[in-house]
Amino acid sequence: MSVETFEPTPLIFTNGAANKVKTLIEEEGNPRLKLRVFVTGGGCSGFQYGFTFDEDVADDDTIVQREGASLVIDPMSFQYLAGSEVDYQEGLEGSRFVIKNPNAATTCGCGQSFSI
């Protein structure tokens, strides 16, 4: 009888978000790009989320891959994002990447800012 072990997913990168990242990368024509998610101080709740495309990956970055796309998180941001879900939503307010963070004690109305 074999025993299977599973590593916990450090961050959930949804298919919708991964497919949007792939589309954006194809439009840029640079297959080395990855979506970088980060946390900075500020916003109406103390911390805010940021997204950027990056070619570079540091040795201590966490990388989550899905559907051929990569999501990259630096160690400082990862401590606030562990267990979160990164998704892409299209709605009346527009289209955007969103984070559902179980570590956030409060969030603001726009969903881009949080406190621990």
TrEMBL record:
Q: Which Pfam families match?
A: Fe-S_biosyn
Q: Which InterPro entries match?
A: ATAP, ATAP_core_dom, ErpA_proteobact, FeS_cluster_insertion_CS, HesB-like_dom_sf
GO molecular function terms attached to this record: 2 iron, 2 sulfur cluster binding; 4 iron, 4 sulfur cluster binding; iron ion binding
Which example biological process does GO assign this protein?
iron-sulfur cluster assembly
How this chain assembles, per its entry, is: Homodimer.
- Family, per entry: Belongs to the HesB/IscA family.
- Identify the keywords attached in UniProt to this record, alphabetized: Iron, Iron-sulfur, Metal-binding
Q: Which organism is it from?
A: Atopomonas hussainii
Describe cofactor binding as the record notes it: Binds 1 iron-sulfur cluster per subunit.
The record's annotation in Gene3D superfamilies points to: HesB-like domain
Q: Which GO terms describe its cellular component?
A: cytosol
Protein purpose? Required for insertion of 4Fe-4S clusters for at least IspG.
Q: Name the HAMAP family on file.
A: Fe_S_insert_ErpA (MF_01380)
Q: What is this protein called?
A: Iron-sulfur cluster insertion protein ErpA
Q: Give residue ranges for domain Core.
A: 11-111
Residues that coordinate or bind iron-sulfur cluster: C44, C108, C110
Necessary cofactors:
iron-sulfur cluster
Q: Which gene encodes it?
A: erpA
